[in-house]
């Protein structure tokens, strides 16, 4: 028994020392990814707990970004909904004390509070073989509380710097896009006009095809210019109008095959005819088109795109929802049969200028898609490969709908 007591005391001392070292490591973190590794891997090892999950709060979307020790992905959920990667938490760390919040879970919820408010939460799994209540000793709880405060400040500074850099980039991009539109669109219009004349007056198929190719290339340049302008402009500018959802979805999906030759769209639409919504149809159409265009490019110019459309209820019952929350969601899932998104860019696929393996394009297509969807209060995500049986990439768009 004395040997066991001595071993337990040594383990406790070791954990406290490890937490002390992590206090300095957190301040040296170079960004969110580095901090996530410290909190989900090194901290869980130091405390000898069964895993840890870091939840970063996205104030714009009212959703969390979930980071575990092995992967990072966006999960659009709100407080009160289930988070699959996170351990079951039955305790709350508050000002250095561990409070029991409910029975059943052995994990610990650690809020990350900065000067601007809540920036995230850390969910610690239960300690291996530990049945004591509370799961952390007083010295561990105090050090963990200090660690959480420092982590919150690091995250807040990282987010502030990220927003500042993004603002400067948008200002530079807006200036460049304006110059591009002004200087290039007039000559492109002239080129396209003469190419159409040549196409219509051509006496051979070869000349007609070449003239049509010029028209197509000018249209591609025009789309790239428009895409850059769309992304550079400030978000939030919507032209909403009430529409029949099933009719709109059928119209958008039906136009993809006409606008993207070589793409075959296999549809499964489960939307009642009486469902209506007030949406910016042009922005939704562009968002879907950008995903479909990327899918066709990934499939080398030809292939099948699986489109599934459904209506989902809010995961929380009406009394538990916050004021203003949508009662239902329009969910549109687009899945191609290409090679899938390369692992190197899965975590940044919605960032501007991210592209890999494409011979043309600006790398703004999915960034524009995200902006257009978020402008309307929705979310767009790249589904994990395990979430679908498809071989290619699968994207899911969710838009809020009014209560029936």
Keywords:
404 residues, alpha+beta, 7-stranded mixed beta sheet, 5-stranded mixed beta sheet, disordered N terminus
Provide a quick synopsis of the model:
The chain has helices at 2-27, 32-47, 138-201, 205-232, 245-259, 281-298, 365-375; strands at 52-58, 63-67, 72-75, 89-94, 97-100, 107-114, 117-124, 241-244, 263-270, 276-279, 303-313, 328-336, 379-382, 394-401. The chain is an alpha+beta fold. Residues 1-7, 71-84 and 316-324 have low confidence and may be disordered.
Describe this structure in words.
- With 404 residues, the protein is α+β, with helices and mostly antiparallel strands.
- It is built from seven helices and 14 strands.
- Strands 3-2-1-7-6-4-5 form a seven-stranded mixed β-sheet, covered by helices on one side.
- A hairpin with a 4-residue loop joins strand 1 and strand 2.
- Residues 1-7, 71-84 and 316-324 have low confidence and may be disordered.
